């Protein structure tokens, strides 16, 4: 049974940093409690650079959910099993909402990844991301969109790479402090929202920007709205959190 039938936790770790394997252990501990509704896939980023590039890994360890083959950003770092449990509960809720309700019999088994087939149109973008060259990756996705403006995968990829570029050199503590001090500053709030999303705090990112739309007007409001729509592209239009945030955005606008 594939990850399109059963929700999965993909844990990106590195054999070069043995301490990161604890993230795999914690994921397995939680998966064993889910009655076969969750599988764990461990990815050694050193051995699988293509997969690491596809997930646009910023740091290791990193845990990403997979629902119907679509990534759901969760969190970087090692989370204790007791803190991981509510995150998994939310992931399984999203999975059920998307019709992903399959079960497996070996929930405690860690699976090795298959090297994914990369759409040849995106190879240049993936190679650039792997090299940390976000500008080239952005240009590659933009070229695909020139040829196929309605391509949802290219739109999502472009939004993801732009996010990576924005947060690459951000100081997390400083950014959050500035956002707290400037609740209606578009630059401060959008950067904080980017960091929220990159850290797996999807609903926090959306709420922050909806609140910013409510608190601003004219050009600033347009900028906040546009940024929120770009984050929607990353998470995916069918995700329940996006659906909920779209309703909140409509309420804030009208």
TrEMBL record:
Task: Specify the domain of life of the species encoding this protein.
Answer: Bacteria
Show the taxonomic lineage: Bacteria, Bacillati, Actinomycetota, Actinomycetes, Micrococcales
Q: Which organism is it from?
A: Kineosphaera limosa NBRC 100340
Name of a matching Pfam family: TPR_20
Please give the start and end residues of each transmembrane region.
Answer: none
Name this protein carries in UniProt: Thioredoxin
């Amino acid at each position: 049974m594939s990850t399109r039938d059963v929700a999965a936790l993909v844990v990106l770790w590195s054999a070069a940093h043995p301490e990161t394997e604890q993230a795999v252990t914690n994921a397995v501990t939680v998966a064993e409690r889910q009655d076969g509704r969750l599988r764990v896939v461990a990815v050694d980023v050193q051995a699988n650079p293509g997969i690491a590039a596809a997930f646009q890994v910023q740091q290791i360890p990193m845990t990403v959910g997979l629902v119907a083959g679509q990534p759901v950003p969760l969190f970087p770092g090692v989370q204790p099993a007791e803190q991981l449990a509510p995150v998994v509960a939310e992931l399984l809720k999203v999975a059920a909402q998307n019709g992903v309700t399959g079960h497996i019999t070996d929930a405690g088994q860690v699976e090795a990844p298959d090297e994914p087939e990369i759409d040849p149109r995106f190879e240049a973008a993936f190679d650039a991301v792997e090299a940390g060259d976000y500008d080239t990756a952005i240009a590659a996705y933009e070229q695909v969109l020139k040829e196929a403006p309605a391509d949802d995968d290219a739109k999502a990829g472009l939004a993801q790479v732009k996010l990576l570029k924005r947060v690459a050199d951000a100081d997390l503590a400083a950014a959050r402090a500035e956002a707290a001090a400037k609740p209606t500053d578009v630059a401060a709030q959008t950067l904080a929202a980017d960091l929220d999303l990159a850290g797996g705090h999807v609903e926090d990112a959306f709420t922050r920007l909806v609140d910013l739309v409510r608190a601003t007007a004219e050009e600033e409001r347009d900028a906040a709205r546009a940024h929120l729509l770009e984050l929607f592209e990353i998470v995916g239009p069918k995700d329940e959190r996006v659906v909920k945030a779209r309703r909140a955005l409509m309420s804030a606008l009208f």
